[in-house]
Specification:
This protein has about 260 residues and is α/β, with parallel strands linked by helices. It has eight helices and seven strands. α5 links the parallel β5 and β6. α1 packs parallel to α2, α1 crosses α8 and α3 runs parallel beside α4. The protein is globular.
Length: about 260
């Protein structure tokens, strides 16, 4: 407990899944959390409201630069500082590249990749003003070992991987006290399998598609044979956000039950 005491943390994509788990655990570890999402997040808001902490939920479009500017300005005015940025927002459009529209390609790039750039761009000056902080980017094992059905998605997460490593060196060279690292979730039990775009919910024979069943996916592809929980990623994020990881930059923390090593 108290590993994030006195830290102000911004977490995107926090209306559910990994983002919500991170928000709840960050608060439990002592952080003041600003949780954001383009979708309403009443459950997240309820989880992070604690006595003596000004944690709150904010509506936020991570693809819109003006929205980032307004959010960071509001954090500076309300909290006076920003110590942690967790870029978590993401979508999956599971359409073959020959069938994907340019509009969907750009939309997925905007949510998964552009948002990481925009968040970093606008959070960095506020972090630097108070001596540094931690930027944690949620990538995916698709950036390390991609299947043929997630070509465009893997591209967005590959961008996150390369950007994270380059930003880590950029901040180190600036001696600004900001550390940049990334996390690579595997098959995690979230609603993304039900909301991913481009696939029907059932096959022609009426059976549930493998791609929409994290239990079946993990049983077939993960060496551990079981799916992960959002809390597994949240604990990794707590470590990277905390001072315990003070000597880590450009690290790629893979939390996937061994999926990427086979």
């Amino acid at each position: 407990m108290h590993r994030l005491d006195n830290k102000v943390a911004l977490i995107t994509g926090a209306a559910g899944g990994i983002g919500q788990a991170c928000a709840a655990l960050f608060v439990a570890e002592g952080a003041c959390v600003i949780a954001t999402d383009i979708k309403p997040g009443p459950e997240t808001a309820a989880k992070i409201q604690t006595t003596g902490c000004d944690s709150h939920f904010e509506p936020h479009d991570v693809t819109d630069e003006a929205s980032w500017q307004q959010l960071i300005a509001a954090i500076a005015a309300r909290h006076g500082r920003l110590d942690v940025l967790l870029n978590n927002a993401g979508i999956v459009i599971a359409v073959p590249p020959t069938e994907m529209t340019l509009e969907d390609w750009r939309r997925q790039q905007a949510v998964n990749s552009d948002s990481v750039f925009l968040g970093t761009k606008h959070a960095l000056p506020l972090m630097r003003r108070f001596g540094g902080g931690s930027i944690v980017n949620i990538a995916s094992t698709a950036a390390l070992k991609s299947g043929g059905g997630l070509v465009a998605y893997a591209g967005t997460k590959g961008n996150v991987r390369s950007f994270s490593r380059a930003m880590a060196l950029h901040c180190a060279a600036a001696r600004d006290g900001v550390r940049v690292n990334s996390i690579y979730p595997g098959i995690i039990d979230t609603s993304i399998y039900q909301t991913l775009e481009g696939l029907p919910h059932t096959a022609a024979d009426g059976n549930k598609l493998l791609a929409r069943d994290p239990d079946a996916l993990a049983a077939r592809f993960s060496p551990l044979g079981v799916k992960g929980r959002p809390e597994d990623i949240a604990w990794a994020a707590v470590y990277l956000a905390s001072d315990e990881s003070r000597y880590l930059i450009g690290a790629e923390l893979v939390v996937d039950g061994g999926l990427s090593i086979i």
